[in-house]
Amino acid sequence: MESDLPLSADTFPRLLLHHEQVRGHRVALREKNLGIWRCWTWREVGREVRELAAGLHALGLERGRHVAVIGENRPRLYFSLLATQSLGAVPVPLYQDAVATEWVPVFAEAQIEFAIAEDQEQVDKLLEIRAQCPTLRHILYDDPRGLRRYHEPGLAPCESAAASGRVLLLQDPGLVERHIALGRGDDPAALFYTSGTTGRPKGVVQVHAALIERSLACTAMEGLTDREEVLAYLPLAWIGQAIFSFAQALVTGYAVNCPESPSTVMNDLREIGPTYFFAPPRVFEAMLTQVMIRMEDACLLKRRMFDHFIGVARGVGKLRLEGKRLAVVDRLQSAIGDLLVYGPVRNMLGLSRARIAYTAGEAIGPDLFVFFRSIGVNLKQLYGSTETSVFVCVQPDGEVRPDTVGPPVAGVQIRIADNGEVLVRSAGLLREYYRDPQATAQVKDSEGWFHTGDAGLLDARGHLKILDRAADVGRLADGSLFAPRFLENKLKFSPYIKEAVAFGQGRDRVCAFLNIDYEAVGNWAERRGLSYGGYLDLVGRTEVLDLVAECVARVNADLATDPQLAGTQIRRFVVLHKELDPDDGELTRTRKVRRRFIADKYRELVDALFDGRAEQAVSTEVRYEDGHSGTIFATLTLREASFFGEVPDAA
Question: Helix H segments across 186-238?
């Protein structure tokens, strides 16, 4: 699709003005509430944004100031982003599931004066830390439920600010447009805080022009139109969600749909049937688990039919990925499989209309990737980061491979440094890390190259292959290459394993921490009449440890077929007594494993694995959802894993 955007539309508020004029009657946003989808047209979005912007202006919001935006995906929060930008202020989306104390450094660093929150939960957290955030003057909220008796200074519903804005606009109808006219493409569009996988989260300053340029590049590549439908269900604070449900929506003009709640996402996904879908690997892992649980509960005939046609799909999918011609019998079996298995599975997952599905955020396991490709989902890998405005590499149709993330998108240059690190140069790079010139200089050199921190290589076709984080790729004691993320992804392909953390750098073998998928394993246990009283009780059962051992054995058997990876088979493992949790610092808010933190926190357990101990007593501090802390005590069983001899190279 060739863009219909005028050159003057160089900021997101100006893009909104454009869509009001060109497609004002078309649906821009939907939200499901009490089972009913409510729609906002582009013209209605424009009116809501003007009223809220005028209300914020009346409260004293000035150009260049920062506004925290916190909550699930709600239309009012999207209006808040645009209203803030319309006044030349800078939105700072924050993770809604963070504990309040995690926000304190952000409020201090960005000197945030305004916060716009979704509901009572977020307001309570803001009030909890208000004494530590002296610059915070105003807290506005969208959902008034539970807040009627709150009488805090500066606390008010968004609707009251919008009402004030309506009055002000009657007196001065051109107020917001004059502020929008002052904006420039190189103004900050948002301040995104990184996930903090390897250290303290940093504030990434991204300008309008960078986000718009990268969104346009991918829109042109994929032929996106204003007829696309997307589901906004990931945290607004994550750059991926901000790109797909905000930046690209404003560039392309397609409709964004907000689910009723996190618990109804799968049902809402089926109702909307998005044509353009984006999810990190963990979401696709959860989808696969859902499919496998249903198959476990199905009758024998259905299970056998599913297993047969999935086997057919894997074989055919591999041939298609290799660009080989399919035999008549393969095409016939694929057609029957699509009718009986693949089509119903896509429909169950809500992906029956998806023309394009992306996965990004971290590497996806090859087995998981091939599974979705095999059932007819046009799943493609995307490589990028907060600092690069997401779109660095995308797999083009017809050039999809499970082991690469595709070639650079138009406008991107890639270079591999002597130490194997991937360097990127494009118009989508961050302006800077907020108030951190030293960190900025470390990642962005004098020639404009951004140092990603990822280890990778370019193959003969110019496709980028990401090995792991450069800091995580290492060697075993015998010199074998050790790429922990690759091993973890293979382990997580099992529907019974939710998280995995592999250790082996400088050691003589590889050991792993594992989390079971509580729903999948619980379902498995109930079908076998095994009683349990909770997560800790379930992981302590010998039958469950045997089940996990079988999953690890399958991974090891697969690793043994590759001479380069045979030495990295998992030798010992332990199923942890608790799920790894962002609130406990073990995962980032985007659910990436913080491997070094975990290694330090559970040092005694790591040593026990490598020392060959059969059991290890542990005590772990945990933080509960209500903010209280507690301690979990357990004695964990450490298991040996089946090891398979290396298969000699056929050559």
Answer: 208-222
